[in-house]
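Action item from last meeting closed. Structure (374 res):
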């Protein structure tokens, strides 16, 4: 009788370990955080979880697919503005007004045509789920089919984020540079109620766990293997009969889908969305968190995004002008000395320990022949 041991099976966490990890995360998010954090700090953590959802998508597209996505602020902004428009319409209906308050100040007496569909909550939610991913799919097909990649793709995505922010600044019907703010309700629930604020935190925490679980399934599937193969040997994958463009488009679309959901939840939690939240600087900030946490891992982007956002808030409270320099220095150190991110340090330690440990005599990582007892 022969038994085959795979090195991959010895390094990947099993189902029990994965279930324990999700259970621990659920305990922290749904039990410990609400018990020990004030309402203000819990709201900040909910904001950080929105950034973590974006980071999971970037980790899939950049870490696994090699696509340096510098324009995730576009898809984040699409989801956020769609949600904000619906909430402003709902608030106006409660006051029995025909248009939101900021439009009345600007002298606009009729709801713009592109606002009208978002009067329906069903249409608004459907648009949040469909429009960012659909736009990403169309852009991806146009870019990847022409084999645009590397720095050219990064510059193109960054230019898209800049153009979207500039477009919003000049639009009075979306609040201009001030954006949309002062939301009163969220699908009928008063946002001023602390209980409803906690409900929002639980919703975004559940979304984050679902996003991580879905991304894990993608990474471990055959598609995940193809995505890594395209990143490392695109021409060889094409020679084997696969279209690398289609594989990239799927990852890019999934990342945009996650960003749109994160933007939609950002609006009721933070209470404002403006062009300053979706331009080049926020898009790069998303990327920095992923790079610091470890773009090739599943949890690295999540922890990196939360850690960077927390550090920004903590340092900004005490040293308002120092955070930009600290962020740049941290990014330079990680990229220059730890290209795999902080999560890569654990893998490096395991590899060093495996080289120092003597090989076991009774277990082979390739193939072990076991003779039946006589």
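Sequence:
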């Amino acid at each position: 009788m022969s038994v085959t041991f795979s090195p991959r099976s010895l390094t990947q966490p099993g189902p029990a370990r994965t279930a324990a990890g999700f259970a621990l995360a659920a305990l922290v998010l749904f039990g410990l955080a609400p018990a020990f954090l004030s309402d203000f700090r819990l709201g900040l953590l909910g904001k950080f979880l929105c950034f973590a959802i974006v980071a999971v998508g970037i980790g899939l597209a950049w870490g696994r697919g090699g696509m340096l996505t510098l324009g995730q602020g576009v898809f984040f902004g699409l989801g956020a503005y769609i949600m904000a428009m619906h909430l402003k319409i709902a608030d106006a209906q409660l006051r029995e007004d025909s248009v939101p308050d900021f439009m009345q100040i600007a002298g606009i007496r009729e709801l713009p045509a592109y606002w009208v569909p978002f009067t329906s909550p069903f249409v608004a939610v459907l648009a949040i789920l469909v429009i960012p991913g659909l736009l990403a799919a169309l852009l991806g097909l146009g870019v990847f089919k022409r084999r645009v990649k590397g720095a050219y793709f990064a510059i193109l995505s960054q230019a898209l984020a800049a153009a979207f922010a500039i477009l919003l600044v000049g639009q009075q019907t979306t609040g201009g540079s001030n954006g949309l703010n002062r939301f009163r309700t969220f699908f009928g629930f008063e946002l001023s109620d602390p209980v409803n604020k906690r409900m929002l935190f639980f919703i975004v925490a559940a979304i984050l766990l679902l996003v991580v679980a879905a991304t894990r399934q993608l990474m471990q599937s055959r598609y995940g293997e193809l995505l890594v193969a395209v990143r490392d040997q695109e021409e060889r994958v094409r020679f084997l009969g696969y279209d690398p463009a289609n594989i990239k488009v799927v990852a890019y679309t999934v990342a945009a889908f996650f960003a749109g959901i994160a933007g939609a939840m950002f609006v009721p939690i933070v209470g404002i969305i403006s062009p300053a939240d979706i331009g080049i600087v926020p898009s790069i900030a998303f990327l920095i968190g992923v790079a610091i946490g470890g773009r090739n891992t599943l949890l690295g982007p999540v922890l990196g995004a939360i850690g960077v956002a927390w550090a920004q808030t903590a340092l900004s409270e005490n040293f308002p002008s120092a955070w930009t320099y600290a962020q740049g220095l941290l990014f330079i150190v990680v990229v220059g000395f730890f290209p795999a991110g902080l999560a890569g340090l654990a893998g490096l330690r395991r590899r060093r320990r495996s080289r120092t440990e003597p090989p076991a005599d009774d277990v082979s990582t390739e193939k072990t022949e076991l003779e039946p007892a006589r």
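Note appended to the action item: The beta strands are 2-3, 180-181, 185-186, 189-190, 272-273, 368-369.
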